[in-house]
UniProtKB/TrEMBL annotation:
Protein name: Phosphohydrolase
Coiled-coil ranges from the UniProt annotation: none
Pfam families linked to this entry: Metallophos (PF00149)
InterPro entries assigned to the protein according to its UniProt record, in alphabetical order: Calcineurin-like_PHP, Metallo-depent_PP-like, Pantetheine_PDE, Phosphoesterase_putative
Domain Calcineurin-like phosphoesterase: 3-207
C-alpha cells in the first residue's frame, strides 16, 4: 500500500513559508505516513528562486512531484511551461498523470471574449503571463494532448491538475462570478469521464471542499491558499474578538491588522499543523 499525499496552492512567498512552516510540514507528512507528495500547482511566484529550492530541500525527506499553477508560470516561456506538463508516474497498478490545465471562458458563456479579456487585464493575475496563444486555444491544445495521453493508459488513473475541471466548484458569490471564466473548463471533466479516471485532485480556487463523486469521478479540492483565508485566521478572530475590525469581510485588511501581534504569531504556531493537515488529501493505492 502506497500513501500519496496531495497539496496545492502553498504560495510560499505570500505565506512567508519559513523554517518553522517547513519543519511543521515535514513532521506532518511523516506523521501521516505519506510515501510520496504531489503538489498541484501554485508553489510561489518564482519557480527558480523560491519553489525549486524548497522542493529540493523537501525532497531530502520524501519523494515528491509537482505540476505548475498559473503563479508558477510567471517569467516562464511557453516551452518551459510545457516541459512540466503531462508527467506520468506509476504506483503499483495506478498511474498518476499531472499537468497544469487552463481555461477557455466556458464557465461564463454569457459574456463575450472581449469582456473576459477586459476583466482579465484589469483584475486577474494571469495578465502578467506571456502566453503565446489565446486562452481558448491554449485549453484546446491541452485537451487534445490530454486525450491523446489518456487513450494510451490502462488501469486505475489519478489526475492532478491545477485548474478547476467541473462547474460544481466555482464561485457562487455574485461579485466573483465573472472570475469563473478564468478557473478552468468543464471539458476536462468530460475527458475524465470518457477515460474512466478514478480520482482527480486540483486547486486554484482557494476553497476547500469535501471529496465528492461526479459521474464516477471522485474530486478532491483542498488548497492551502493564502494565510488571510486560512481557517486558523478566521478562528483567531473568534477566540480574540477584541481584534476584529469594522470590515471583517475584507480578508486582507483583517489579516494585516493582526499579523504582527504576538498573540497571532503564537496562535499560528499552535494551529499550523492542523491547517496543513486540512489542506492535505491522501489517496492510498495498491
Amino acid at each position: 500500500m502506497t500513501r500519496i499525499g496531495f497539496m496545492s496552492d502553498l504560495h510560499l512567498d505570500s505565506n512567508q513559508f519559513g523554517d518553522f512552516e517547513q519543519q511543521t510540514l515535514r513532521h506532518l507528512l511523516k506523521e501521516e505516513g505519506i510515501d510520496h507528495l504531489h503538489i498541484a500547482g501554485d508553489l510561489s511566484n518564482d519557480l527558480a528562486k523560491i519553489s525549486l529550492p524548497f522542493l529540493e530541500t523537501l525532497k531530502q525527506e520524501i519523494p515528491l512531484s509537482f505540476n505548475l499553477g498559473n503563479h508558477d508560470m510567471l517569467g516562464l516561456s511557453e516551452q518551459e511551461i510545457s516541459n512540466y506538463d503531462f508527467q506520468v508516474q506509476q504506483f503499483g497498478q495506478t498511474k498518476l498523470v499531472s499537468f497544469s490545465g487552463w481555461y477557455d471562458y466556458s464557465f461564463v458563456p454569457e459574456k463575450s471574449k472581449e469582456e473576459h479579456l477586459r476583466t482579465k487585464t484589469n483584475f486577474w493575475f494571469d495578465r502578467r503571463l506571456e502566453r503565446q496563444l489565446d486562452d481558448p486555444s491554449i485549453t484546446a491544445q491541452i485537451l487534445q494532448e490530454l486525450e491523446k495521453l489518456l487513450a494510451t493508459l490502462d488501469g486505475p488513473i489519478i489526475v492532478a491538475l491545477h485548474f478547476v475541471p467541473h462547474q460544481d466548484f466555482l464561485y457562487d458569490h455574485p461579485y466573483f462570478q465573472r472570475f469563473n471564466a478564468f478557473l478552468g473548463s468543464q471539458a476536462f471533466h468530460q475527458l475524465f469521464v470518457k477515460y474512466r479516471v478514478k480520482e482527480v485532485v486540483f486547486g486554484h480556487l482557494h476553497h476547500r471542499h469535501q471529496s465528492r463523486v461526479i459521474e464516477g469521478v471522485r474530486y478532491h479540492m483542498r488548497p492551502l491558499g493564502y494565510i488571510r483565508e486560512w481557517e486558523l485566521t478566521r478562528n483567531f478572530f473568534n477566540d480574540f474578538p477584541q481584534y476584529k475590525i469594522p470590515q471583517m469581510y475584507r480578508l486582507h485588511k483583517r489579516y494585516n491588522a493582526v499579523k504582527d501581534l504576538a498573540e497571532f504569531r503564537d496562535y499560528k504556531k499552535k494551529h499550523l499543523a492542523a491547517e496543513l493537515r486540512d489542506a492535505l488529501t491522501v489517496i492510498e493505492v495498491q
